[in-house]
Fold these 2 entries.
Entry 1:
Amino acid sequence: MDIVVLLKQVPSTESLVEISEDGTSVKTDDVKWVINPYDEFAVEEALRVKAAHNGSGSITILSVGREKAVEAIRAALAMGADRGILINDPEATHCDGLGFARILAAAIKSMPFDLIIAGQRAVDGDNFLVGSAVAEFLDIPAVNMVIKEEVADGKIKCHRTVEGGIVVIEASLPALITTQRGLNEPRYASLPGIMKAKKKPLEIKTLKDIGLDASAVGTPMTKIISLKYPPERKRAEIIEGETAADKAKALVKILHETARVV
Amino acid sequence: MSKGVLALAEQVDGQFRKITYEAISQGRRIADDLGCGLSVAVLGSDIKKAAESLGSYGADSILVADAPELEEYMTDTYTHTIAGIVNDKNFSVIILGASSRGKDLAARLSARLNAPLAMDCVAVRLDQGKLVATRPMYGGKILSEIIFEKEPRIVAIRPNSVDIAESPRAGTVEDIPVVKGNGELVFVEKKLDTGKLELTEADVVVSGGRGMGGPDFSVIEELADLLDGAVGASRSAVDDGWRPFSDQVGQTGKVVSPNLYIACGISGAIQHVSGITSSKVIVAVNKDPEAPIFAKADYGIVGDVFEVIPLVTEEIKKIKGA
């Protein structure tokens, strides 16, 4: 099994995100960068699939990003992936989701693969787009939000989460799946793992290296015209009362008569 | 007449999901603003009868693909069929719900049609002739406004974000051809808990966090039941195995927009709070008066969840009984 994991480096979910002076981008100077949590599930699942196939084949971590994304790829290699590829190109910094997907698909086309695993979304843009778009550009099936999978006989059987439950779908390989929380518990990199990761191959490529002309990436078709913070709440009105029963009664009165939500 | 708006219906076992009415109602408003017609595409098996009812929500025409292979949502057949309609009829806007299935379809359609997509929108408006979509990013820490540089513009709206409005129109039914997939995707089975209300669609969500102290969420379940709401959980409650992953609310779980969100024993970590900010009213119950959740809530009670919540439940029962 040759597996490709699509990985993005994102601000950690504990980070405060601040809007830049230009009003259409966010400040990234003081942000703590991590592997997108959903991509961490993808790395872990790739390791498990490979192990279930007697460790044959290889796991490639593929990312589009700037120089610092190397840290995220190294972290995935420390978990046990075999090699990393970072597409770092100034022309690749301002594309939209479909542009990223075209770059990723172009890079994947030149390598053998049976399975692609990606996060269902990156927790920065929250677009839920890139995985499906990569599959479309490679003309392979995709199953999103997978919470359990099983590879056998050239197929992958996936439990996909939907509202109110799961749907079981079988896709023929090669296929792309995206992860759902609950799929697995990502391992921590061991110290030997971290040492080994430093010697694992990690290539940094440009668009030209993967045979893609900048014009083929396409100009962004969506444009952010403004960013703002969600409406701030004032500090909660604390409901006072002699007893818990008094407080409960006062709260329900407000919810019923003032807020009109019960 | 300018190119029309296409809304996509979502059905499970022949029943339209609530998001269908939200997508059609919003599609009607956009069509009115653009001065064009609204079509609704309905894909399913034995679905024609149900499809006819959608005219009352503003559909000028109802495009029905009715075939056994459309009984279950499958990415390939649905994408092929809808892309076929769009290429044939040349719509300027495609609007659908950002449910699990809707997100899957929206993403694949965007790539297929090379069409710009605004995913998981909480609002859509027309500003000087331009369609502007508002969507949360960073798990709700930021709201972005997006414009589209090309047509068709695909807008996937977050459940519970826009109003449903009846607006009777002709609803002329037209059959459309089914374009099947190539067999690379096969439906095996589905396991749905039909009695369980989906968090993202619930009008009331009652969530528990670390302060629950264990997997006993019965006081929360009882209150949620009484209010026809859903039960949620913080990441730590899920990490500790007290609740299933599907209950998690927050940046790495589900983002919810109920009328009423009640946070029980939840401290208010930023990754949780970002997933609830679009709730209309937030109530927090926590023993710790310094808990950050109180800075992000509308109303708070400092107290023990196991004491306060049953009392709240009793009070609401009194109102409901009255």
Entry 2:
Amino acid sequence: MDNVSFLKDLLNIYSPSGEEKEISNYLCEKLNSLGFNTYCDEVGNVIAKIGSGKPDIILLGHIDTVKGFIDIKEIDGKIYGRGSVDAKGPFAVFVCAVNEIKDILNKSVTIIGTVQEEERSKGARYIVGRYSPDYAVIGEPSGTSGITLGYKGSLEVEYSLKKEMVHHSGKDLTAAEQAIDFWNKIEHFCTNFSKGKKIFDALIPSLISINSLNDDYTQGVVAELNVRTPVDFDVEKFKDWITSNKGEGEVKFIDFRPPVRSSKNSKLIRSFIKSIRRHDGEPVFKLKTGTSDMNVVAEKWKCPILAYGPGESSLDHTPNENISIEEYKKAIEILKYVIRSL
Amino acid sequence: MAACIVCEGNIDIPEDTEEGEIIECPECGIELEVVSIDPIELAPAPKEEEDWGE
């Protein structure tokens, strides 16, 4: 198989979250033809197994992207395309690495292509209770020499308030003003909590949207908030605090993805460190402020886990998303060594 | 036993230590990577970077 052509094939199939059917079908056919035992599960995840025996290794990467197709171009050794970094590049590395060592594989490897990671990790939530691997690698860009140990948690909150119209010159706060007051309290709490802390240990709030819904007799407001949470932070207590500060409004906790931080001492990490050095790299540990499918599976699987893949995270979701072919090929070699040494 | 490359303090290296393992100097607290087992060679542990995404 031509590894670069395979990546281009993946990039050519537009697969924003919720529209992964075409890429799932393509992968099922392709991976079956390569000798993987492959099928699509009920939610559209692609499951491809090969090898037998211990350890059981799962390589999990998402096959959806954010919206916005980017024409596939190859310029100056880089491939441009939606998902080249986040995260079809890392996923393609999984397939290519395992494919190249499948004939000498003395362990079980399952490659899982998950759906809707860019939404709320629907695919990862579906499979998490169905597997119990000895090692897991999540396909996300870390750079060829980067090893991602952790991701912050993510709490999604919706605030809403509907009340009778009041005169603007009166002393009562409008619904919009009350929503802003609520947001200011959240921001103040997070700022105080985070004083003197590194970003990974801080609480990072975002006001995603705020919309007023007024008619002749009523005024309403709906705000969507997100708070990125650190490891060992008591989220239930924080939710209680949020509820007690909602004033007249209503609060809904839409979703929570727990934070994750892996130990630096596991056979998996050691294998990556050794492999990166053997391929002339200088290993770097990364802690990310975002989230990935690793947030969903790490807590349940309780096995050595990390995220790895070629590409610059700063290009995620941008119109210039691209990946260096040299890095892509190097990541395949690094992963081949890791799988063989586990 | 090995000497810390920063404070020269004594670090106990158990027999089952593996290449790539991260150990902490009990005297100065710095993290070190075991880059070679025979002979034991220590180097600063990989740096920890904060990054955004995904």
